[in-house]
Specification:
Two copies of one chain form a homodimer.
Chain A: E1 4-11, H1 14-26, E2 32-37, H2 43-59, E3 63-68, H3 74-85, E4 89-92, H4 96-105, H5 111-124, E5 127-130
Helix pairs in contact in A: 1-4, 4-5
Chain lengths: ~130, ~130
């Protein structure tokens, strides 16, 4: 079973704080990093930083799952750039249940099955509740 | 068409930063607030704060949509408490596409249709991409 590493990238501090909040629930996580792009910041510098992190994970023999906020915009462009160049998986639309599933299951599932579980959990976690008044 | 207000609640700073990141993409939003619960903080104080915000929105005649990170845990307990007591809508599993849809459509859709659009967008935004190497 290969080790899985996580890199989350989003506009602003969303990915950074989602990861922190997930760790608040699940405990501190190894091989999990988050990056953010703030207005006026250099996209190329962020891409280089993401690529360095990925190469480091790869040298350590870890499968890398890149999470981004949405398809479109610089964070997902960085993800798509990495996807084209390296053997990674990319998941868009990250939310809390997806991260909880990822951290719960990544030591016990191969990457393909893990991705499916993450997507299922992320989708199933989206529910509406309307009061009866 | 009633005005819709948004209150996002999550563990840590996730909701606060997701809202900021969504505003980075969509522009600054009126009637949109986010709250966080950090370790050691008082859940009852947060619930009171959320209730005050909601009552204020209601006095202004606004339909309130409460977003939380996941079903389970204190943020969703606060959401469920408000759902039982007041006429609000509660949506779990918030992610970026859900917020973008919310802010794009809330002035043009009734609340029920808006909730369905948010859920559809949140779910559709969750996708995986696997490279061909």
């Amino acid at each position: 079973m290969s080790k899985k590493a996580v890199m989350a990238i989003a506009h602003g501090n969303f990915a950074i704080e989602l990861l922190k909040s997930a760790e608040m629930i699940m405990g501190e996580q190894e091989d999990a990093l988050a990056l953010g792009l703030n207005p006026g910041e250099d996209v190329e510098a962020l891409r280089n930083q993401a690529e360095k992190i990925l190469l480091n994970y790869q040298q350590e023999g870890k499968d890398t799952i890149v999470l981004v906020d949405l398809l479109g915009g610089s964070p997902s462009n960085i993800g798509l750039y990495l996807l084209k160049k390296y053997e990674i998986s990319l998941v868009t639309g990250m939310n809390m249940m997806m991260l909880i599933e990822l951290f719960s299951s990544r030591d016990f599932e191969e990457t393909d099955a893990l991705l499916d579980k993450m997507i299922t959990a992320g989708v199933a976690g989206i529910q509406k509740f309307i009061g009866n008044h």
